[in-house]
Design a protein that fits this description.
The complex is a heterodimer of chains A (about 375) and B (about 290). Chain A is α+β, with helices and mostly antiparallel strands and about 375 residues long. Chain A contains twelve helices and 18 strands. In chain A, strands 7, 8, 9, 10, 11 and 12 form a six-stranded antiparallel beta sheet that branches. In chain A, a hairpin with a 4-residue loop joins β7 (about 95-105) and β8 (about 110-115). The radius of gyration of chain A is 26 Å and the shape is elongated. The termini of chain A are far apart. Chain B has about 290 residues and is an alpha/beta fold. In chain B, about 35% of the residues lie in helices and about 20% in strands. In chain B, a hairpin with a 3-residue loop joins β8 and β9 (about 135). The two termini of chain B are about 25 Å apart. The chains are: A alpha+beta (about 375), B alpha/beta (about 290). At the A-B interface, α3 and α8 of A face α1, α4 and α5 of B.
Chain lengths: ~375, ~290
């Protein structure tokens, strides 16, 4: 992707096989190479996911060590990520390391380029400790980064020559044309030959815009995703796993977060965030329920629905279908309010299932927490 | 009074024949909203529900009916274009319900709206309602009651929760608006607070925030300097983990910023009553008003 926009990168090849690592090293023809773990997360260097090698044999050994290893970095969470592929890349003699990134700034509702003369591993820390060392340059979403802005960045970073301005404009094009939410080159280096090169990059795409980037959508690697979260995404459900034991199913993200907060306030721990959205079908509700049960830590379930577009009878029907299909081995508390609430309550009652009903979200949260103490 | 919409607001629905658009147009008509036109390209010269004229373009609809406000139900891939159309046709308010519009589309739309000075509410929001007068959006009408509380929220169903509580304690609402859960939105908390402060009918304000961004912090500063009416607030997402996007594209704690704790502390410092349970918003505001 970087090369397509004319941003140079070191030569390198991807592999999952130690046997091929030596061959790749020789083909690169560089005296030194780096073996880099390919996981969708930052902070790899510190976690031991990047090895510097000087021969074909060292290259093989490094790949053997990294493949299958679980890396825990500052960004992966405690469970870490398993390395399935590595990139073997020529090592470039570097004169200077810089940071360059673009995000959407919510305060100004505009894209903003951030650059720092201090590139390398710890940009998050730099942002916290000395934010004044990061130069921020908001740019026009229709016009892109202007030439003069790129030149201002060049001289603010002390690069000394307007010839470097191009790289900033290229990255801004990449960001806009591919609907990125983050495009970051870290480090961006000036080599001993005074050439500019991206040694590492992180690009986040806006998943809402993937419909117009079919080629990029194919890059999705489901091995990098949480299995229940992936399953949920297939049914247009928004699921996030947490560490507690009370499964939650709620409509609307705000209400879902508030429900989790209430559970905690009453002394319980939510097992997940699950937003079934505004207009879910009975089938989606059934699937949502199955997802909750798929989490082995779940010991009780709370359903909290305030029907607007969502009709309570559809929710009730979905719950009944799911429970009849997969059984119910633990307490289930349901709170329904809003459109068709009376029909919904009748459906639950008529099902003969052991469902505890609640009239407010507070009562529902209390009841589900108490059910675990019994 | 009230803010943004009232019984005289003349509404055009963009995307009136889609499934969400048609379902909610019926609901809005039932509520009494003055819907004067609809737009669906290719379906001009027909009528919605035998009563609302449909036009091929918004410009035709506006010149034929004098519509001054639009509600947008156009699907995400085409929504940005519909919003640009609305800004160009001289509407004074555009309420965008559509969820899932690409962020960069909204960045571009936002720039045009700001340059032209057109007000947008949303996207990805339940809309705006002035109870017993006009409903522009997807909220269930029956939970509302005319009254003196202004309600503003980033979330849809959590707004309903606050509305329902204020109705149950007998207060009712002046106007309620959901400003939307996306990172780029047309109307911020500060914008809404400014309108509520100016509105004679609004006696107190409920502001429902959530994790992510810095809009609540900016609102807190604004309240301290400019708002004399009591404000009660709840911030959703105290238990949300860092770096995980909680359904709303805007609700994410990144780099340790945007936590519920930070927002709560800032609001309290600026004189806002912050409740720690979403279930007591109604009683909290009731108690404040009845102490005075």
């Amino acid at each position: 992707m970087l090369n397509k926009y004319g941003i140079p990168t070191p030569k390198g090849e991807m592999t999952d096989s130690p046997a091929k690592a030596g061959e790749i090293f020789s083909r690169l023809g560089a005296p030194i190479a780096a073996v880099k773990s390919q996981i969708h997360s930052g902070g790899r260097g510190k976690a031991g996911g990047i090895k510097v090698v000087k021969s074909a044999a060292e290259s093989e050994a490094a790949v053997r060590e990294l493949i299958g290893k679980t890396l825990v970095t500052a960004q992966t969470g405690p469970a870490g990520r398993t390395v399935r592929k590595v990139l073997i890349e020529e090592s470039i003699p570097v004169a200077r390391e810089l940071y360059l990134g673009i995000v959407i700034d919510r305060k100004t509702s505009a894209p903003v380029m951030m650059a720092s003369a201090e590139g390398g591993m710890e940009i998050e820390e730099l942002a916290r400790k000395s934010p004044e060392k990061i130069i921020k340059m908001p740019f026009h979403p229709h016009l892109g980064l202007a030439g003069f802005q790129a030149r201002e960045l060049v001289f603010a970073l002390g690069l000394g020559s307007a010839a470097y301005a191009d790289i900033f404009i290229k990255l801004s094009k990449l960001f806009i044309e591919n609907d990125c939410s983050l495009a970051e080159i870290n480090p961006l280096v000036i080599t001993n030959e005074k050439k500019v090169m991206a040694l590492d990059a992180k690009i986040n795409l806006d998943d809402r815009a993937l419909f117009r980037h079919k080629d990029l959508a194919e890059c999705r690697d489901i091995n990098e995703e949480h299995p229940i979260e992936y399953e949920a995404s297939k049914y247009d459900l928004s699921y996030i796993g947490l560490d507690g034991n009370i499964g939650c199913m709620v409509n609307g993200a705000g209400l879902a977060m508030a429900t989790m907060d209430l559970i905690k306030l009453h002394g319980g721990e939510p097992a997940n965030f699950l937003d079934v959205g505004g207009g879910a079908s009975a089938e989606q509700v059934t699937q949502a329920f199955k997802l909750l049960i798929a989490n082995k830590n779940v010991k009780a379930i709370l359903v909290n629905i305030f029907g607007g577009i969502m009709k309570c009878d559809i929710i009730a029907q979905g719950i009944v279908t799911a429970v009849k299909e997969v059984g119910l081995g633990f307490p289930l508390v349901v709170r329904l309010e809003g459109t068709n609430v009376d029909i919904g309550k009748k459906i639950l009652k008529a099902s003969g299932l052991n469902i505890v009903s609640a009239d407010s979200m507070d009562e529902a949260a209390k009841k589900v927490v108490e059910s675990l103490k019994l | 009074m009230s803010i943004l919409v009232n019984k005289n607001t003349k509404v055009v629905v963009q995307g009136i024949t889609g499934s969400a658009g048609s379902f909610h147009t019926k609901q809005m008509l039932e509520y009494g909203t003055k819907i004067v036109a609809g737009v669906t390209p290719g379906k001009g010269n027909t009528k919605f529900d035998d009563r609302v004229p449909i036009y091929d373009t918004l410009r035709q609809a506006v010149s034929a009916t004098g519509a001054d406000t639009s509600v947008v139900f156009v699907p995400p891939a085409f929504a940005a274009d519909a919003l640009l159309e609305a800004a160009d046709c001289g509407l004074k308010l555009v309420v965008c319900i559509t969820e899932g519009i690409p962020t960069l589309d909204m960045v571009k739309v936002y720039k045009v709206y700001r340059d032209k000075g057109v007000r947008m509410v949303g996207p990805n929001c339940p809309g705006v309602i002035t109870p017993e007068e006009s409903k522009l959006g997807i909220m269930p009408g029956y939970i509302h009651k005319k009254g003196n509380i202004g309600i503003v929220s980033r979330s849809g169903t959590l707004t309903y929760e606050a509305v329902w509580q204020t109705t149950k304690v007998g207060l009712g609402q002046s106007t309620c608006l959901g400003i939307g859960g996306d990172p780029i939105i047309g109307t911020s908390f500060v914008d809404a607070l400014e309108l509520f402060q100016r509105d004679n009918e609004t006696k107190a304000i409920i502001m429902i925030g959530e994790i992510g961004g810095t809009m609540e912090e900016e609102a807190a500063e604004y309240i301290k300097k400019n708002v004399t009416k009591p404000v009660v607030s709840f911030i959703a997402g105290r238990t949300a983990p860092k770096g995980k996007r909680m359904g709303h594209a805007g609700a994410i704690i990144s780099g340790g910023k945007g936590t519920a704790q930070e927002k709560t502390a800032k609001l309290i410092e600026c004189g806002v009553t912050v409740v720690d349970s979403p279930a007591v918003v109604g009683t909290a505001i009731y108690n404040i008003l009845n102490k005075k």
